[in-house]
Amino acid sequence: MAENRLQNWEKKSKERQKLYKQYLHRADKNTVLRQLPGFHEEAFSKVDCLQCANCCKNFSPRFKTPDIKRISKHLRMRESAFIETYLKVDEEGDYVLRSSPCPFLGAGNYCSIYDQRPSDCQRFPYTDEDVIIKRQPLTLKNSTFCPITYYVLEKLLEAEKKK
User: Fold this and answer.
1) What region, left, alpha or beta, does residue 97 occupy, with left being phi > 0 and alpha being psi -120 to 50 degrees?
2) 125 preceded by cis ω (within 30°)?
3) Ordered DSSP codes for 77-104
4) Within 13 A of 12's CA, how many CA atoms are on the CB side?
5) Of 4, 41, 92, 137, which has the highest C-beta tally within 10 A?
6) Any idea what DSSP says for residue 109?
7) H helices then E strands: how many in the chain?
8) DSSP letter, residue 132
9) Other C-beta atoms lying within 10 Å of the C-beta of residue 104
10) Strand partners for 111
11) How far, in Å, are 27, 61, 120 from residue 89 at the CA level?
């Protein structure tokens, strides 16, 4: 199954949302946290983010104050000009990108501000941290567009079956 796990992953992920939700709700946090580093590494060895970039094409990270300061300095822009040019405030009161795909997504799916990118981008897809359990709606959403999140959830389910 490992070889074809990622075949049709988007379709499979949609079909398995209820199963993922049930699993995340009942999963033992400590067991999951012990398993995540290995599953995270394995997923990244099988998925090339530069071939995908769904996160950069369709969704926005939150831009926190330190991100805005760092990126605007890097771009040699005033913070207010950076915000006015690239950001808007979403329903939750967070700064997010005005448009998609991300304006910093360049040729070959490379990020033009990679070394300065927002902390949300650095941490994405959160498959090596407790966010996967703590923010279940986010994990479920991510599994619909990120093959790494999908892969890690599938590995977690598989490991649970072996118990």
Assistant:
1) beta
2) yes
3) --HHHHHHHHEEE-TTS-EEESSSS-TT
4) 13
5) 41
6) G
7) 11, 2
8) H
9) 19
10) 105
11) 34, 12, 16
Preceding amide of 61 cis, omega within 30:
no
- Tracing tokens 């530069």 back to the chain, one arrives at 50
Q: Do the beta carbons of residue 124 and residue 15 sit within 8 Å?
A: no
Rounded CA-CA distance 39/37 in Å is: 6
Q: Which residues pair with 95 in a beta bridge?
A: 89
Q: What is the C-alpha to C-alpha distance for residues 119 and 63, in angstroms, rounded to an integer?
A: 8
Residues 6+ apart with CB under 8 A from 87: 63, 68, 95, 96, 97, 98
Residue type for position 64:
K
* Tokens read off for 57: 């094409």
Amino acid present at 57: K
Neighbours of 46 (CB within 10 A): 14
